[in-house]
Each structure stands twice: as structure tokens, then as C-alpha cells.
Amino acid sequence: MAVDALAALATGWVYDRVGPRVLIVLPVLSAAVPALAFTDSLAPVVLGSLVWGAATGVQESTVRAVVADLVAPGRRATAYGVFAAVVGVAAFAGGALTGALYDVSIPVLITVVAAIQAAAVLLLAVTGISLRHT
Known about the structure:
The chain has one domain. Helix content is 86%, strand content 0%.
């Protein structure tokens, strides 16, 4: 929770200065978690837990700031509701996928998570480009 809070503060501060580009850190952090946490050594597992906390802090704060900036004030409650629903469904699906892949192969799990996060980076880049042109 301490790492969550520090990451939220740090990325919020950066967001206020550079905007949504700060969100590029989220898929990078998310891709690192399984590579660190699913090892047999204590230090990487602890580091993976800390990275997970940082990713959670970014998601729980700075991503919501983006929603606020993208949606008109009269529609924000609906936008936050839709956002929470999508995050909940995605968390469920991601957890199910992680559990299934964990039973198959941890290296496959790490590879799939990294590929999904690479797709997220591409999506952020495309979205960033389209937002700049509007």
C-alpha cells in the first residue's frame, strides 16, 4: 500500500506536467510483475510485489485522472461506472487467464502477459496520436 500511494503521487505529479504519456509506465510495470513474482527466489518475489503495488497506484489514480480529462463533467459518473465495470471484467479475465497459464507453464504465462502489455503500449501510442489530432 505504501508503494501504491507513492506511485499514485509520483505519476499524478508527472501527469500534471506531461499528460497521459505518463501512462506508458503502466504496461511496463504490469509486464514485469509475473517475470519477478513467479520465481523461486525471495528478492525478485518481493520486488514483483512492490512493482505490482506501483502498477496498482498508477491505475487507481492517474488512469482515473485521464477519464476525468476525457469526459465532460455531466457524464463523468457514467464514465467512471463504465471504467470500473471494464476494469472488473478485465481483472476477472486476466486472473482466469493467469491461473490457467500458471498450470501450463510459467514461461508461457510471462510471455503472454508481456505480449498483452506490448499490445497495450501500441494502443496507448495510437490513442495518444489520435488525441493529439483532435
